[in-house]
UniProtKB/TrEMBL annotation:
Protein name: Thioredoxin domain-containing protein
SUPFAM superfamilies: Six-hairpin glycosidases, Thioredoxin-like
Sequence ranges assigned to domain Spermatogenesis-associated protein 20-like TRX in this UniProt record: 1-108
Species whose genome carries this gene: Desulfosporosinus nitroreducens
Origin: domain of life: Bacteria
């Protein structure tokens, strides 16, 4: 539409004659996007982008749609005809359009409150822990059953094409598998992670995942790369590595981080938003290869091996060219022919990959969206911090810390208010719920990785600010926009976990984790209320709320804490920390008693601090085992816990 209409002089003339034209970046203004997408879905039965809205000066829509060509074709009404018709109708019968807009607003508004909370509240169930467990486990089992039914056993993933990664569904299933090892949850995760890693949705030359696959096999992606997908997928592969210790999982997480540090990190440390699918006006042109292009870079023998392994043929697998992929399993034959393992074959082609990457760098690159969004940076901070925990890599910890410093310096006002977007020195837009929730998540992971008390203190401050600005005292849950934001027709509220988890889902888990960290009952009460507020939707459609369900899983599990008492500079501390994070412990909290945390967590004073050594206290259900001081003693303690 941009090329066909908005940059066309004839269309522009009609737009300027009849309308005040407004173009919205939905990543900068998700509040506007959420609000008017609700109108589009209500009026047309579907939605999508580009989103086209015609409204009164009071911002009340009377016409919505998605794509319109310049002139009518293929059954689509044309922009020229549409603009002329609406302009004429407004001139002749403005009141009719205004009445229609009023009716539309009233209808949509009446349907946007949270589900009725008159059912037996969770607080009642809490009176009986068995009743709460029965209710919660029933919801979790229902979600698993729905996902298992929609699982594609041949290629992995869920449903039919197009296929989206939805990594929070995979991390839900990893937690479900902990409690239900006889079910197939772990198999579903393994097949899906492997399928994506083999397919063209993964960039085998330059690393990083594309946004989604247009086919069921994960072969042909929509080539756009989003920061949020790569953040959440890195977390999924890291957690899978904790469960299975499958080396490829760790490698994929590391390669995602390599891509982000190389291509998506600003000099100041913030993370850019996305890379486009198109280059030179063609989708995927930057990423595809012919055998001749490979042969021009590599020697004949290596080129033949690379093309055989990565399915690069004269026929092509995408519009006459080739998306490198491992789906056909050709690597097995190459491995057998060369008496190598598959891992050794790939390692032998690493120099070839680097040479092809260097050659690809000479091509015209897709456009990079270099705005820095607080919310998506929160996700990547969480991912890098988790990478530091699991892999013990200080580079990842430094990246998380540098991004955090950047966000708190450049995207937080003097009064503490978070902002949403930064680009080239310009900070704009009051932060949304996702900005707070995702950044708090990132800070909690960062604290778990570095133990610095100010990180946990900042997370607590932001949660207090989030409650003040976003909580809906009457309807429950959290609004997308703050009470100080621009006044729209009504304040949107989102709970569905789509390509990105909702801020309400992540907040539920943040509140529970803050309760475990601090021992402060108010956070637990708020978390229980958050579960209560969304009880109906969790029961009705649990598979659409897999990030929210991870909060429910956390609430159902006994508390487990590791307290590491001693200097943060102790030589034993990194090894103890990595031992703890080497296995999957999704319901555990790690606290560091380094002398000043008691200002934030008063109960930590009960754990004596010896500056000359690290003392490890492992506690479960408010009962601690005998503290240990040596790394090997700690290893034994973990093995027996």
């Amino acid at each position: 539409m941009e090329r066909e209409s908005f940059e066309d002089n004839e269309v522009a003339a009609l737009l300027n004659r009849y309308f005040v034209s407004i173009k919205v970046d939905r990543e900068e203004r998700p509040d506007v996007d959420h609000l008017y997408m609700a109108f589009c879905q209500a009026l047309t039965g579907s939605g999508g982008w580009p989103l086209t809205i015609m409204m009164t000066p009071e911002k009340k829509p009377f016409f919505t749609g998605t794509y319109f060509p310049k002139t009518e074709r293929y059954g689509y009404k044309g922009m020229m005809e549409l603009l002329e018709q609406v302009g004429t109708l407004w001139a002749k019968d403005e009141e009719k359009l205004r009445d229609s807009a009023d009716q539309i607003v009233a209808a949509v508004h009446s349907g946007r409150s949270l589900p009725d909370k008159t059912a037996a509240p969770i607080s009642d169930l809490k009176d009986s822990s068995e009743s709460f467990k029965t209710w919660g486990n029933g919801v979790l089992s229902k979600a698993y059953s729905i996902l298992a039914q929609s699982f594609d056993p041949r290629y992995g993933g869920f449903g039919q094409a197009p296929k989206f990664p939805t990594p929070h569904t995979l991390t839900f299933l990893l937690r479900y598998a902990e409690d239900h090892p006889k079910d197939k949850a772990l198999e579903i995760v393994r097949k899906t992670l492997d399928g994506m890693a083999l397919g063209g949705i993964y960039d085998h030359v330059g690393f990083g995942f594309a946004r989604y696959s247009t086919d069921e096999k994960w072969l042909v992606p929509h080539f756009e790369k989003m920061l949020y997908d790569n953040s959440l997928l890195a977390l999924a592969y890291l957690e899978s590595y904790q469960v299975s210790h499958f080396p490829k999982d760790a490698q994929l997480a590391q390669e995602i981080f390599t891509y982000v540090l190389r291509d998506m990190t600003s000099p100041e440390g913030g993370f850019y938003s996305a890379e486009d699918a198109d280059a030179e006006g063609e989708e995927g042109k930057f990423h595809v290869w012919t055998p001749q292009e490979v042969e021009a870079v590599l020697d004949k023998e290596t080129a033949a091996k690379y093309c055989a392994v990565f399915d690069i043929t004269p026929k092509g697998n995408f519009e006459g060219k080739n998306i490198p992929n491992l789906l056909l399993g050709n690597i097995k034959k190459v491995a057998q022919d060369n008496s190598l393992s598959e891992e050794e074959v790939l390692q032998s082609l690493e120099n070839a990959r680097q040479a092809l990457f260097a050659e690809r760098e000479k091509r015209i690159h897709p456009h990079k969206d270099d705005k820095i969004l607080t919310a998506w940076n929160g996700l990547m901070i969480a991912a890098f911090a988790k990478g530091a925990q699991v892999l013990g890599n200080n580079t990842y910890l430094e990246a998380a810390e540098k991004a955090t410093t950047f966000i708190l310096t450049q995207l937080r006002r003097g009064d503490g208010r978070l902002m949403a977007r930064y680009r080239e020195g310009d900070t704009a837009y009051l932060g949304y719920l996702d900005d707070y929730a995702f950044l708090i998540w990132g800070l909690l992971e960062l604290y778990s990785a570095n133990g610095k008390p100010q990180v946990l203190q900042t997370a607590l401050q932001l949660q207090v600010e989030q409650d003040r600005l976003f909580h809906d005292e009457e309807g429950g849950g959290y609004y997308l926009t703050g009470s100080d934001a621009e006044e729209l027709l009504f304040r949107p509220k989102e709970s569905y976990d789509g390509a990105v988890p909702s801020g309400n889902s992540i907040t539920a888990l943040n509140l529970l984790r803050l309760a475990r960290f601090t021992g402060d009952e108010r956070w637990e009460r708020k978390a229980e209320q958050q579960l209560l507020d969304f009880r109906s939707v969790l029961e009705e459609h649990p598979s659409g709320y897999t990030a929210f369900l991870q909060a429910l899983q956390f609430a159902l599990h006994p508390s487990q804490e590791l307290i590491l008492a001693g200097s943060l500079n102790s030589k034993d501390l990194p090894e103890m920390r990595q031992l703890f994070f080497s296995t999957f412990r999704p319901f555990a909290s790690v606290l560091y008693q380094e002398g000043s945390l008691s200002d934030t967590v008063p109960w930590i004073k009960d754990y004596p601090l010896d500056p000359s050594q690290v003392t490890a206290y492992l506690c479960e259900n408010f009962t601690c085992q005998t503290p240990v001081h040596q790394v090997e003693e700690f290893r034994t303690l973990l093995e027996n816990s």
